[in-house]
Design brief:
With about 325 residues, the protein is α+β, with helices and mostly antiparallel strands. The chain has 10 helices and 8 strands. About 35% of the residues lie in helices and about 15% in strands.
Amino acid sequence: YTLLGGISQNYLLRNPRGQIIGIRPYSSAEIRPVFKSATKIGRETWIDYYMQSPLAGGPPLRMEPNDVLALSWLSVNPLNPELGVSPFAAAFLDIQADVELTKFPLELMKNGAFTTFLLNLGVGTEDPKIFPSNKLRQVKGEITEQITGGNKYSPLIVRGGAKGEVLTPNLGRTGLAELGERSEIRICASSRVPPVYAGISSGVAASTYDNVKLSRIGFVKDCVLALAGIHAKALSDKFQKEDWRNHIFGNGDNDFTIDLDLRNVMALRDEQQAEREIAVQEYNAGIRTMDETRRICPDLPDAEPGVGDQFKPVPGSSIAIPLNEI
């Protein structure tokens, strides 16, 4: 829903005691915010409540703001900040803009936006500069009738001496080339995908293995993990305000944080391996405790038989942990 519509409206299922027991995501077409009317304080569009309109039919259902958690895409909808902008919709808008730029010069020429013909009247007279106004209006009307409307492709025939000249429009002066330059980069920027990683024209020309690899890492960090991190923070802030005592899933408290599990993220494997090696080296040098090292390397074996996670090496001592065991 976040990718397709720009936002996911998540309804929090509660038990009779008001405790959260589940989350049900909905699209922005099913659940939409209803705003408060303007007050004396200002005209901010504070959300009053949400209204669910079942896609399968049925009467609309009112939902309280405390029961809906909105998780949006990274881009903001300037026309409706409470709703997001889908990366697909943003890319389509840029694609449509490039289509219009492609058709624009043709539309200019079809609609006569350029002066394409110059007719110099009075050629052959004793004084070419002198041409009576009444005759000018008469000849101008004849010319207009012959080259416009249904006669725009008919030959031009006028009375009296005249010299015709075809004017070629200079499209380079319109600046359209600069407007449409590197359109693929703008399209990728709107959807937050690096051109090299997307494999489109501008990226392919300059793509190497290193560039593709770095683009993949950048995409994962700056887009995927950034979005996941924002959503994890929103979930943490919401759940930390809830009551988890004597919950159906077990007795707990709200002293916790939802974080990302990056152990199986392929794009970050090389960085994680380097971080684990540094952590082991610092542990062997007595800089890190075993507990700190295990936060980075949770699958490490015990440093010594029978020694717990809170083990701190004596200064100057060294306990070797083979790197191939990381």
